[in-house]
Every structure is written in C-alpha cells, then in structure tokens.
Amino acid sequence: MSEHGGNVLEMALKIGTDAENILDFSANINPLGMPDSLKIAIVEQLARAEHYPDVEYRQLHSALARAHHCLPENIMAGNGATELIYAVVHYLQPRSALLLTPGFAEYRRALQRVGCQIHDYQMSEADGYQPDERLLDVLVQLRPDCLFLATPNNPTGLMPDAALLQAIVQCCHQHHIALIVDEAFIDFLPNAPGLIPQLADFPQLYVLRSLTKFFAIPGLRLGYLLSGNLAAMAQMKQQREPWTINAFATLAGEIILDDQPYIQATHEWLKQQRPWLYQHLADLPALQVWQGCANYIFLRCLRPEINLQQALLQQHILIRHCANYPGLTGDHYRVAIKSATDNQRLVTALQQVLGHG
Fold first, then answer.
1. What's the pLDDT score for residue 357?
2. How buried is residue 246: exposed, middle or buried, by Cβ count under 10 Å (0-12/13-18/19+)?
3. pLDDT tens digits for 180-227?
4. Neighbour-count burial of 332, counting CB atoms closer than 10 A to its CB (0-12 exposed, 13-18 middle, 19+ buried)
5. Which residues form the Aminotransferase class I/classII large domain (predicted)?
6. Is 87 helix (H, G, I), strand (E, B) or coil?
7. What pLDDT does 12 receive?
C-alpha cells in the first residue's frame, strides 16, 4: 500500500478495472491541469530532450530567484520537494529531530535514513490538530537539531497561528535549531508570502516549495529549497547527484510562475469549490470535517464500521485513507478538492454510502 495519494493503478488492479476509470480524490493536484503556456512551450521545445540539461540549472534558478526576489544562490531546485527533504537532512545530519504528527511521511523516512532520533509532538482532535505554545516549551526542553513544520499541514490543510509561527521561528533561531518549513501547498493561499522574505534574518531557516501540485505537473516533478545560508546551499548542490531534474521540468520552472492568468484562475476555482465541498461534507451527520485552507479537506468518519475508502472505491472513486499517518486512525481521510462536477459526484457517492441520500 502506497504511503502517498495518487496510487490509482494499485487500487484499479484491486477492483479489476483500468486506472482511467477511477476518479482520483487521493492526490491533491490542481484540476485545471497543466497550464497551456507550458503545453505550448513543451511542444515548441521538444528538442530539449535531445540535450543534457545544464547541470547547474542556471536559467531555472534565475527564474525562481526573480519570482521570490532573492539570489539564485539562495535556491536549489529538485525533482519535487521530496528530493530536497532528503538533501537538507543529508546535509544537516541531525542527531535528534522534532516532528509534528500527523505529518508528511517523507520527513520521518529521511531522518530515519541518517539514524536520527525522532521525537513526536502529537497534535490531536482536542487541540484542533494545531500546535500551540506547548510546542515552544518542548523545543526549549528538547533542543532538537531540527524541526520540520508544514504550512499548511498535510493531511489536515490547517495553517498554524501566525503569531505562533513567528515565535517558533524566533525560538529555533535562539536555540540554534534548524527549522525546515514545508510550504508545498502555500501557493493555494492567495497573497500568502510564507517565510521566504525572512530568510536573510534566519540562517538556520530552510523553506521547501513545490510546483507539482499547484501547476498540475506531478509527472514532471519540480520543487525547490530556499535558505539564507549560502554556504549550506552551495554544499548541498555539490553533494547532489547530477541531472535529477529533466529538461521539461526545468522548462516548466522557467515559465509557469509568470502565468498570472492561470494563477488567478486557480485561486478563483478554489475560492468557489472549497467552501462548497466543505459545507456539503459538513452537512453529512456521519462526518466530522476540518476547515482547512489548502486544496484538500481532512475528515473523520463517525461510523467506524464503514471503510470509506473501500466503499467509495466500489463506485470508482479513490480518497486518501490516513490510517498510516502517526496519530491518526482508520476513521481519518483526506479528499482533494476537484472540479464542480467531480465534487458533486463525490458528495452524491458519500450520501449513498453513508445513507444520507
């Protein structure tokens, strides 16, 4: 069983159908699809496949630097944000780390790979699956070498309190704790600057970004890491394997951040569909739903005798089961927000499965 969403082929084989017959709510990908600007560019520049990419990815790093008003030296692009999680952990070689649970599985796997001792900060339903000032106390007491934090969190879709986030940044700076902030879904929040503008003030702050979800290019894979610590970035670039980013992913990063019509259309779609889907899920008495700010919704089924993933799979709809997230149970699920038609199909299927039609 995959630790991630998007394992459509595996699920299709399980129920004896083709993958294209499954409506995938398990992967949080923009339903607008790949930007037309990128499709046109790929067709026009197919010959890029005939040449090795620049091993330094100079044009890509320059484009990302322009988008974030920083130096190319502040940035390291990668084959999705996941490659960069492993890269920063390999560079830091932490002996101890603090993870918020539930959280993205790859932080733990990367830390385990370097033999790091992992401490869990458990978030629960009682505290709304959000960190509070208790996290600051834990940081001071434990003094871990690093802390991973996702803003918004995956799978809950929740953003931490803004003042608390600043206090966490200050606390980590004060106690020389490397803070790796995963902003893979922050592009779905209009006008959210994230922590990139603060990189110059906090040299032990590392920010992860992903273009895979927002721009619907999971097959191309593109993410990037930013830090104000130029020596650290230079060393990570030296340590990496060559050519981990393919020519068309590189091309994507050079052009899509300038595609303002696509960015605006995405924000407009989410502004309409997130409240619609949230409300229709919340109206089902058998579900408890959290109001996140990303392009997915976290929920708990209050009828444990029903395996929602399996029940919906019989209707050729795949949702993300969250049982393998530390701190969650078999009753927790995550659903992507998709097009109006697909969202309606999900709600109708849930009404049938839960007997609320």
1. 53
2. middle
3. 999 999 999 998 999 999 999 999 999 999 999 999 999 999 999 999
4. buried
5. 21-350
6. helix
7. 67
Neighbours of 89 (CB within 10 A): 24
Give pairs for 314-318: CB < 8 Å, separation 24+.
314/15, 315/349, 315/352, 315/353, 316/15, 316/17, 316/21, 316/22, 316/23, 317/22, 317/23, 317/25, 317/345, 317/346, 317/349, 318/8, 318/11, 318/22, 318/23, 318/24, 318/25, 318/26
DSSP 302: S
At 17, list the tokens: 């159908």
CB 323 within 8 A of CB 263: no
Given this model, what pLDDT does residue 21 score? 77
Q: Which two tokens stand for residue 203?
A: 């040299």
Question: Which of 12-16, 78-82, 102-106, 280-284 bottoms out in mean pLDDT, i.e. has the lowest?
Answer: 12-16
Nearest one of 204, 212, 97 to 154, comparing CA atoms: 212
- 111 secondary structure, DSSP code: H
325 Rama sector, left if φ>0, alpha if ψ -120 to 50, beta otherwise:
beta
Q: In sequence order, what are the beta bridge partners of 238?
A: none
The helix/strand/coil state of 262 is: helix
> Which own/partner pairs from 236-241 qualify as long-range (CB within 8 Å, at least 24 positions apart)?
236/76, 236/87, 236/88, 236/90, 236/91, 237/56, 237/76, 239/87, 239/90, 239/91, 240/76, 240/78, 240/87
Distances (CA, A) of 96 to 74, 91, 150, 178: 26, 14, 18, 11
Query: What gap in Å lies between CA 83 and CA 103, rounded to an integer?
Result: 17
d(CA 249, CA 152): 24
Query: In the prediction, which pLDDT does 5 show?
Result: 57
**pLDDT tier for residue 1 given thresholds of 50, 70 and 90:** very low
pTM confidence score = 0.95
Main-chain dihedrals φ then ψ at residue 301, nearest 5 degrees: -85, 125
Exposure of 79 in the CB half-sphere (CA atoms within 13 A) = 12
